[in-house]
Amino acid sequence: MAGFFKKLFGGNEQAEPAPVLPAETPAVQTVAPNDLSAPLGGTVVELSGVSDQMFASGALGPGAAIEPVSGTVVAPADGIVTVAFPTGHAFGIRTTDGLEILIHVGFDTVELDGKFFNAKVEKGATVKRGDVLVEFDLEEVKTAGYPVTTPLVITNAKAAISSVRALNVGSQVAAGDAFLAVEPKG
Protein backbone atom coordinates (compact mmCIF):
# COMPACT_ATOMS: atom_id res chain seq x y z
CA MET A 1 0.00 0.00 0.00
CA ALA A 2 2.82 2.41 0.85
CA GLY A 3 4.26 1.83 -2.63
CA PHE A 4 0.94 2.85 -4.19
CA PHE A 5 0.89 6.17 -2.34
CA LYS A 6 4.57 6.75 -3.09
CA LYS A 7 3.91 6.20 -6.78
CA LEU A 8 0.77 8.37 -6.72
CA PHE A 9 2.17 11.29 -4.71
CA GLY A 10 5.90 10.88 -5.16
CA GLY A 11 8.39 11.17 -2.38
CA ASN A 12 11.69 9.82 -1.26
CA GLU A 13 12.54 6.75 0.73
CA GLN A 14 13.08 8.62 3.99
CA ALA A 15 10.05 10.18 5.53
CA GLU A 16 10.56 13.70 6.75
CA PRO A 17 9.83 14.24 10.44
CA ALA A 18 6.60 15.98 11.28
CA PRO A 19 7.10 19.65 12.13
CA VAL A 20 6.88 20.55 15.80
CA LEU A 21 4.18 23.13 16.34
CA PRO A 22 4.09 25.48 19.31
CA ALA A 23 1.56 24.67 22.02
CA GLU A 24 -1.76 26.34 21.31
CA THR A 25 -3.23 28.83 23.72
CA PRO A 26 -6.92 28.38 24.53
CA ALA A 27 -9.08 30.00 21.91
CA VAL A 28 -11.28 32.93 22.83
CA GLN A 29 -14.94 31.95 22.62
CA THR A 30 -16.75 33.08 19.49
CA VAL A 31 -19.80 35.33 19.36
CA ALA A 32 -23.22 33.66 19.12
CA PRO A 33 -26.13 35.59 17.54
CA ASN A 34 -27.69 36.61 20.91
CA ASP A 35 -24.35 37.46 22.53
CA LEU A 36 -22.96 40.91 23.04
CA SER A 37 -19.43 41.29 21.75
CA ALA A 38 -16.59 43.07 23.50
CA PRO A 39 -16.87 46.83 23.01
CA LEU A 40 -13.08 47.26 23.11
CA GLY A 41 -9.88 45.27 23.44
CA GLY A 42 -8.52 44.32 26.83
CA THR A 43 -8.94 41.92 29.73
CA VAL A 44 -12.46 40.82 30.66
CA VAL A 45 -13.31 41.26 34.36
CA GLU A 46 -16.37 40.31 36.37
CA LEU A 47 -18.60 43.30 37.06
CA SER A 48 -18.43 42.59 40.80
CA GLY A 49 -14.69 43.29 40.66
CA VAL A 50 -14.85 46.90 39.39
CA SER A 51 -14.08 49.83 41.68
CA ASP A 52 -17.36 51.73 41.11
CA GLN A 53 -19.99 50.34 43.49
CA MET A 54 -22.98 51.34 41.33
CA PHE A 55 -21.68 48.98 38.63
CA ALA A 56 -20.12 46.37 40.94
CA SER A 57 -23.35 45.91 42.91
CA GLY A 58 -25.36 45.31 39.75
CA ALA A 59 -27.61 48.29 40.54
CA LEU A 60 -27.41 49.43 36.91
CA GLY A 61 -27.91 45.91 35.56
CA PRO A 62 -25.88 42.77 34.98
CA GLY A 63 -22.87 42.73 32.70
CA ALA A 64 -19.09 42.65 32.73
CA ALA A 65 -16.23 45.06 32.21
CA ILE A 66 -13.00 45.34 30.27
CA GLU A 67 -9.67 46.68 31.45
CA PRO A 68 -8.80 48.24 28.08
CA VAL A 69 -5.59 48.17 26.10
CA SER A 70 -6.99 50.34 23.31
CA GLY A 71 -9.03 53.52 23.10
CA THR A 72 -11.58 52.53 20.49
CA VAL A 73 -15.07 51.55 21.65
CA VAL A 74 -17.32 49.71 19.18
CA ALA A 75 -20.98 48.71 19.16
CA PRO A 76 -21.41 45.26 20.75
CA ALA A 77 -24.55 44.55 18.69
CA ASP A 78 -26.76 46.04 16.01
CA GLY A 79 -29.12 48.71 17.28
CA ILE A 80 -29.96 52.36 17.77
CA VAL A 81 -27.99 54.79 19.93
CA THR A 82 -30.46 55.96 22.60
CA VAL A 83 -27.98 57.93 24.70
CA ALA A 84 -24.80 59.64 23.55
CA PHE A 85 -23.29 61.86 26.21
CA PRO A 86 -21.73 64.95 24.63
CA THR A 87 -18.60 64.19 26.67
CA GLY A 88 -18.19 60.90 24.74
CA HIS A 89 -17.68 58.84 27.89
CA ALA A 90 -20.96 56.85 27.83
CA PHE A 91 -23.44 55.44 25.34
CA GLY A 92 -26.78 53.69 25.51
CA ILE A 93 -27.89 51.35 22.73
CA ARG A 94 -31.22 49.58 22.18
CA THR A 95 -30.27 46.43 20.29
CA THR A 96 -32.39 44.91 17.56
CA ASP A 97 -33.07 42.11 20.09
CA GLY A 98 -34.62 44.64 22.51
CA LEU A 99 -31.76 44.87 24.99
CA GLU A 100 -30.99 48.26 26.46
CA ILE A 101 -27.29 48.45 27.17
CA LEU A 102 -25.02 51.05 28.70
CA ILE A 103 -21.31 51.30 27.93
CA HIS A 104 -19.42 53.58 30.31
CA VAL A 105 -15.75 54.37 29.58
CA GLY A 106 -13.95 54.54 32.90
CA PHE A 107 -15.23 55.94 36.18
CA ASP A 108 -15.86 59.62 36.87
CA THR A 109 -14.64 60.38 33.33
CA VAL A 110 -17.62 62.71 32.89
CA GLU A 111 -15.46 65.16 34.86
CA LEU A 112 -13.09 65.38 31.88
CA ASP A 113 -15.91 67.17 30.02
CA GLY A 114 -15.04 65.47 26.75
CA LYS A 115 -11.31 66.09 26.91
CA PHE A 116 -9.47 63.12 25.31
CA PHE A 117 -12.74 61.73 23.82
CA ASN A 118 -13.87 61.88 20.17
CA ALA A 119 -17.45 60.60 19.81
CA LYS A 120 -18.23 59.10 16.41
CA VAL A 121 -22.02 58.68 16.80
CA GLU A 122 -24.93 60.75 18.07
CA LYS A 123 -28.23 59.89 19.68
CA GLY A 124 -30.55 58.31 17.12
CA ALA A 125 -27.78 56.81 15.00
CA THR A 126 -28.26 53.27 13.71
CA VAL A 127 -25.18 51.14 14.43
CA LYS A 128 -24.01 47.70 13.39
CA ARG A 129 -21.92 45.39 15.56
CA GLY A 130 -18.34 46.68 15.30
CA ASP A 131 -19.16 50.29 14.34
CA VAL A 132 -16.97 52.78 16.21
CA LEU A 133 -18.84 54.69 18.93
CA VAL A 134 -15.95 56.70 20.37
CA GLU A 135 -12.20 56.96 20.27
CA PHE A 136 -10.38 58.16 23.36
CA ASP A 137 -6.78 58.68 24.40
CA LEU A 138 -6.34 55.84 26.86
CA GLU A 139 -2.99 57.02 28.21
CA GLU A 140 -4.11 60.64 28.67
CA VAL A 141 -7.23 59.55 30.59
CA LYS A 142 -5.04 57.38 32.84
CA THR A 143 -2.49 60.20 33.28
CA ALA A 144 -5.35 62.52 34.31
CA GLY A 145 -5.99 60.08 37.17
CA TYR A 146 -9.14 58.32 36.00
CA PRO A 147 -9.72 54.57 36.01
CA VAL A 148 -10.38 53.33 32.47
CA THR A 149 -12.16 50.07 33.34
CA THR A 150 -15.13 50.02 30.98
CA PRO A 151 -18.34 48.26 32.05
CA LEU A 152 -21.15 47.18 29.77
CA VAL A 153 -24.47 46.51 31.52
CA ILE A 154 -27.94 45.49 30.39
CA THR A 155 -30.22 48.07 31.98
CA ASN A 156 -33.51 46.34 31.12
CA ALA A 157 -32.36 42.85 32.11
CA LYS A 158 -35.35 42.06 34.36
CA ALA A 159 -37.77 42.54 31.49
CA ALA A 160 -35.67 41.32 28.56
CA ILE A 161 -33.45 38.39 29.55
CA SER A 162 -33.62 35.18 31.54
CA SER A 163 -29.84 34.94 32.05
CA VAL A 164 -26.55 36.63 31.24
CA ARG A 165 -23.06 35.24 31.68
CA ALA A 166 -19.69 36.92 31.22
CA LEU A 167 -17.47 35.10 28.72
CA ASN A 168 -13.68 34.98 28.53
CA VAL A 169 -13.26 36.33 32.08
CA GLY A 170 -9.59 36.86 32.80
CA SER A 171 -8.70 36.56 29.12
CA GLN A 172 -7.43 39.17 26.72
CA VAL A 173 -10.02 39.86 24.02
CA ALA A 174 -10.16 42.05 20.94
CA ALA A 175 -13.07 44.35 20.21
CA GLY A 176 -15.76 42.15 18.68
CA ASP A 177 -14.85 38.95 20.53
CA ALA A 178 -17.45 37.13 22.65
CA PHE A 179 -18.19 39.07 25.84
CA LEU A 180 -21.66 38.40 27.28
CA ALA A 181 -23.78 35.32 26.61
CA VAL A 182 -27.39 36.48 26.75
CA GLU A 183 -30.46 34.26 26.98
CA PRO A 184 -33.52 36.33 26.03
CA LYS A 185 -36.89 35.79 27.71
CA GLY A 186 -39.50 33.81 25.81
From TrEMBL:
It is found in: Cytoplasm. The keyword Transport applies. Keywords: Kinase, Phosphotransferase system, Sugar transport, Transferase, Transport. PROSITE patterns: PTS_EIIA_TYPE_1, PTS_EIIA_TYPE_1_HIS. Its main location: cytoplasm. It holds the Pfam family PTS_EIIA_1. Residues 52-156 form the PTS EIIA type-1 domain. Gene3D superfamilies: Glucose Permease (Domain IIA). The keyword Nuclease does not apply. NCBIfam families: PTBA (TIGR00830). This is PTS EIIA type-1 domain-containing protein. It comes from Rothia endophytica.
